[in-house]
Design a protein that fits this description.
The structure is a single chain. By secondary structure, the protein is of the alpha/beta class. Strands 2-5-1-8-9-10 form a six-stranded parallel beta sheet, sandwiched between helices. It has a two-stranded parallel ribbon with strand order 3-4. A two-stranded antiparallel ribbon has the order 6-7. It has one domain: Rossmann fold. The chain has nine helices and ten strands. The mean pLDDT is about 95. Bound molecules: adenosine-5'-diphosphate (ADP) and magnesium ion. Magnesium ion binds next to helix 1.
């Protein structure tokens, strides 16, 4: 079974919400899905997992893996990993990240890896999220918005993937409003027409989004899960 790296056109596009919902949906189909957030940054939570992304991913996949496996690098500052490491005077050990990634890959039938920010978010001065995906040799799924501006952001992300030789499985359009502006309504067909990529799903804005089950049923309804299981 294939594993995937979930990236996005930006921070806040819904990478965590979608990855968690995908993991929960796949679990319901009796697939042993693991989750990983190799590098996270942000304000540390006081209890449980330091990263709120990791807490949600863990809850969704119902795995027994320890925090240091799911999230080997946590930087307690809401900036890019590169900036956080610089400001906090820390060194990000990518060797450990890749070792733990390979262990999780072996331990589960399928692994969903959430990126950080977008494809060109710097982890080091000359090492970006794209470099991490390339080294993991995973196919990627791009999460994007449907609102005005998305064509520019999504096409740039797709082009960078091409430049790095990263295979894109498809695009998931989040916060989709079928009654929205013309830009929004056209986004799925235009993105498919220009990039040639599969639109794996269009997920609407979910009111009760803080509940994992609500987001999971929205993903089950609007994303073609069969395309992931191969
Ligand atoms: N389809 C949706 N409907 C409503 N809220 C959403 C949806 N997708 C994501 N969110 C919310 O938007 C915020 C940002 O999403 P998140 O998954 O954390 O983005 P990212 O991981 O890309 O930074 C979160 O509070 C999340 O719960
Ligand atoms: Mg996230």
């Amino acid at each position: 079974m294939k594993s995937y790296f979930i990236t996005g056109t930006d921070t806040g596009v819904g990478k965590t919400a979608i990855t968690a919902a995908l993991a929960a949906s796949l679990r319901k189909r009796n697939i042993d899905v693991g989750v990983m957030k190799p590098v996270a940054s942000g304000v540390a939570r006081k209890t449980g997992f330091r990263s709120s992304d990791v807490a949600l991913l863990h809850e969704a996949a119902q795995v027994n893996d320890k925090e240091e496996m799911i999230n080997p690098v946590f930087l307690p500052l809401s900036v890019s990993p590169f900036d956080a490491a610089k400001i906090l005077n820390l060194k990000i050990d990518m060797k450990i990240v890749f070792e733990r990634f390979h262990s999780l890959l072996k331990a589960h039938q399928m692994l969903l890896v959430e990126g950080i920010g977008g494809i060109m978010t710097p982890i080091a001065r000359d090492f970006f999220v794209a470099d991490m995906i390339k080294e993991m040799e995973l196919e990627t799924i791009i999460v994007t918005r449907a609102t005005l501006g998305t064509l520019n952001h999504t096409i740039m992300t797709v082009k960078m993937c091409k430049e790095y030789g990263i295979t894109v499985k498809g695009i998931i359009i989040n916060y989709f409003d079928e009654k929205g502006s013309p830009a929004e309504r056209n986004a799925p067909s235009t993105l498919h027409e220009i990039t040639g990529l599969t639109i794996l799903g269009t997920v609407p804005f979910v009111k009760d989004y803080q509940k994992l089950e609500t987001m999971t049923s929205a993903v089950e309804k609007n994303v073609n899960l069969d395309l992931f299981i191969s």
